[in-house]
TrEMBL record:
It comes from Aegilops tauschii subsp. strangulata. One of its GO terms (biological process) is L-valine catabolic process. Hydrolyzes 3-hydroxyisobutyryl-CoA (HIBYL-CoA), a saline catabolite. Has high activity toward isobutyryl-CoA. Could be an isobutyryl-CoA dehydrogenase that functions in valine catabolism. This is 3-hydroxyisobutyryl-CoA hydrolase. Its EC number is 3.1.2.4. The keyword Hydrolase applies. It catalyses: 3-hydroxy-2-methylpropanoyl-CoA + H2O = 3-hydroxy-2-methylpropanoate + CoA + H(+).
Amino acid sequence: QESEAAQLNEEWCTLALKRLKEASPLALKVSLRSIREGRYQTLDECLVREYRMSINGISKPFYHDFCEGVRARLVDKDLAPKVFYFAGCTIVFFFSVQSF
C-alpha cells in the first residue's frame, strides 16, 4: 500500500513509488502479471517469458509507450513522457496485457 510505504519513510520505498507513478500503465500491468506468473516457473521459463515480453514491448501496437519512455528518460532527459497510450485510463484492456 502506498500509505503504508509513506509511513515507513524508507528511501527505497519512496523511490520505488515515484518510479511506478512514472511508468506506463500497460507496462505496470504486464510487469505485475509477469511477477505473479514467475513465482511458479523455472528460470528457463522466466527467461523465455521475459524475452517475449521485451520483443512484444517494442513491437506494434505497443511500441509507442516504449518509444515515449525512451525519449523522456534517455533522449530529452526531461523524465516527462508526453502521452502514454493508456495514460489516464483506470482500466488497461485485458487483451493488451495478454498479448505480451
